[in-house]
Design goal:
6-stranded mixed beta barrel, 680 residues, 7-stranded antiparallel β-sheet, alpha+beta, 34% helix, single chain
């Protein structure tokens, strides 16, 4: 970094004595209200309350099951995360148990609780947060360093210095989630208890990176702290934090000998040409870089982000929005003429169009990273294409990571599963209540579901932007301070009719921007029952500018017939196959909907298949299945054969039922496929 600490000395005297005024502070989940290079800003946390429908149901399960289940788990000896804090605080004796990133995952849970409190104001949640924060404070060193893994190692081995001795200890990852959770807690409660801890930790990182060697300064595995440091800057307005965030990107790749493709730091960020390596780390990096761009306007960052986004969405992302095709691989893709440049990668993006289905990795955290990245790109640009990707990931590859009852979880999200596979994959394909080797995904998906209401709306100088659809009540203010409240009624994503009724409207004219999803053809728009002449191009926002009054109704009608999608023919695994999508929901076949002893792999859909929605209840949740007809090939006994002659027998017409992909595996163990052979 080019600016010395002493340069900010006078400013720090003003910044450090108290937390910023909450009355002057916008309380959005990602606060771009003062970000000069962000077109949109979010509404305050708590401004959107679910009423009925899909997300109201998921939020209800989050409050009644997801958070209590996760809270009990993280306080149990089985998980040991809370116990680690007690040991590190000197309140108990013992060893650290669990992965070194356990702290960060506990902080994600605290963020979920705080985000829920912003809506429910449940005093029990507030009390739980107070107790946890008080314990964390007992662990933090006076200089701001915080890690139960290292602190316990030092307590049990006097004289040993464990801090930042191994980049795989995930210290900055943990601190990043502390920062993000602290900002959410402050905005939800107005309390500074956790923010004070995060400020000390951010100060520690600032001083650490000032003094560390170039090799040590790049100690950043899974860079959640990029987002965290920027959010701390937005909350405190301490200029050192923005300086730190810029430096964190600048130092990537400066020492090639210690960089890895898996960690995206073998070359400088601005020189990256393709998305590669560990998909969680990549998507967190991209989200953090987007945050830095929003504050600085550094066009070189946006150029790289656009290049990465095009690469991911056009060549490397699953139809479900999942990211990271490979369990393990090599980079650069095993074809280098210099073998010593080839590196192992894991849980990673693969080659262009390399999207296996049975062995798809698609870690839930990577898919959440896709949401975080696209949300920030949407705020920066106002371009609906980012909301389209966010919505696809949210409804499909994020929700698939948790059971409908909120108590079991998937680490990976394959697009096909079969018991006939002759090998066992590393991660369970049945949801489990605890992923002992790496429980990062469960609290991550819980915090994401707790925070979906914050993605529904944005504001700009022109007015209100409606990004996502679901039954809710909004109470907010536009950029000019004018109060606005409305009620959104819809059965989305099962029905494309959306009605917005204004309960309070500013006196001056303003625009409402309603997103027309990229999958939707033939959208129509009415105001007070009368059709509106507006541009309703798929994948854009439709703008209505006028004077509004209380009681005005806006009706958006989004036709959502079932669609058959095909992949680029360069995706080898899905040639002559189709995926089925209705609205934002991707569908799949499951053996539970087939007669006994019939294999879903033998089914073929006609290219002209007519699939109709039919209500169904799975795991206590109401949803829409799709029903139609296909053909079933005669059952084949392969034995040990690799190849055989094509049988001459005729396929049999059969009824077909598909269910939402996110709901697979909720009726017991089952084979599943998203991509289905098609007859043309």
């Amino acid at each position: 970094m080019n600016v010395s600490i002493s340069k900010f000395g006078l400013g720090l005297l003003c910044l450090s004595f108290a937390a910023p005024s909450l009355h002057a502070q916008q309380k959005a989940l990602v606060n771009t209200s003062s970000s000069t290079h962000a077109k949109l800003s979010s509404v305050d946390m708590g401004s959107v309350a679910w009423t009925t429908g899909f997300w109201a149901d998921r939020f209800d399960v989050c409050q009644k099951s997801m958070i209590p289940t996760m809270w009990a788990l993280y306080h149990s000896d089985r998980n040991h995360a809370y116990k680690n804090f007690e040991i590190a605080a000197g309140l108990a004796k013992g060893e650290h148990k669990g992965p070194p990133f356990h702290d960060g995952d506990f902080f994600k849970l605290l963020e979920a609780v705080a985000a829920s409190y912003a809506v429910t104001h449940d005093p029990k949640l507030d009390q739980q947060l107070d107790e946890a924060i008080a314990l964390i404070a007992k662990v933090q060193r006076p200089d701001g360093y915080l890690s139960t893994h290292s602190t316990i190692a030092e307590l049990n081995n006097p004289g040993q210095k464990a801090a930042f001795k191994n980049r795989l200890n995930f210290e900055t990852y943990n601190l990043g989630h502390l920062m993000t959770a602290a900002c959410v807690h402050y905005r939800a409660t107005g309390k500074t208890t956790m923010l004070d801890l995060a400020r000390k930790s951010t100060d520690y990182l600032y001083n650490f990176y000032k003094k560390a060697s170039p090799e040590l300064a790049r100690n950043a595995i899974c860079p959640s702290h990029y987002m965290g440091v920027v959010e701390m800057y937005r909350t405190t307005r301490d200029p050192r934090y923005l300086e730190l965030a810029k430096s964190l990107i600048d130092i990537r790749g400066l020492v090639a000998e210690v960089g890895t493709d898996d960690n995206q730091d073998r070359i400088p960020f601005r020189q990256m040409q393709q998305a590669g390596g560990h998909a969680v780390r990549a998507n967190y990096l991209f989200a953090g870089a987007a945050d830095v761009y929003a504050e600085t306007g550094d066009a070189t960052l946006l150029t790289t982000l656009n290049r990465m986004w095009d690469d991911v969405t056009q060549r490397k992302m699953y139809v479900t929005g999942a990211c990271g095709a490979l369990y393990d691989g090599v980079s650069p893709d095993g074809t280098a003429y210099k073998p010593d440049t080839v590196q192992k990668i894991h849980q990673a993006y693969g080659r262009d169009y390399q999207l296996p289905n049975f062995t798809a990795h698609g870690e839930t955290c990577a898919n959440i990273g896709n949401v975080l990245w696209n949300w920030r790109m949407l705020q920066v640009s106002g371009n609906a294409k980012y909301a389209d990707v966010l919505e696809t990931a949210l409804y499909n590859s994020v929700l698939s990571g948790i059971s409908l009852d909120g108590q079991r979880f998937l680490y990976t999200n394959p697009l096909a599963y079969s018991d006939a596979l002759p090998f066992q994959q590393r991660w369970s394909k049945d949801r489990v209540d605890y992923i002992s080797l790496s429980n990062c995904c469960p609290p991550n998906v819980v915090r994401t579901i707790a925070e979906v209401n914050n993605y529904m709306y944005s504001t700009s100088d022109k007015g209100l932007w409606v990004n996502l659809y679901g039954g809710n009540k909004l109470s907010t203010k536009l950029r000019n301070g004018a109060a606005l409240s409305l009620n959104q009624e819809t059965n989305y994503p099962w029905d494309g009719n959306v009605k917005l009724t204004l309960d309070e409207a500013p006196k001056k004219p303003f625009s409402m921007f309603l997103r027309v999803p990229a999958w939707c053809d033939g959208a129509t728009l009415l105001v007070n029952g009368k059709p509106i002449v507006a541009t309703l191009t798929p994948g854009t926002y439709a703008e209505i500018n006028r004077s509004w009054k209380k009681g005005d109704r806006v009706e958006l009608q989004l036709p959502m017939p079932a669609q058959l999608l095909e992949a680029n023919p360069l995706v080898e695994e899905t040639r002559n196959q189709v995926a089925v999508k209705r609205g934002p929901i991707v569908y799949c076949l499951e053996t539970k909907d087939f007669p006994a002893n019939q294999k879903i792999s033998a089914l073929t859909l006609p290219a002209t298949a007519s699939l109709q929605p039919k209500p169904v209840t799975i795991g206590g949740s109401q949803m829409m299945s799709l029903t139609g007809h296909g053909t079933l090939a005669p059952e084949a006994q392969w034995g040990s054969q690799l190849y055989r002659k094509l049988p001459a027998q005729q396929p049999t017409p059969v009824p077909v039922t598909l269910i939402p992909y996110y709901a697979w595996g909720n009726r017991g163990h089952s084979d599943m496929e998203v991509w289905i052979p098609v007859s043309r």
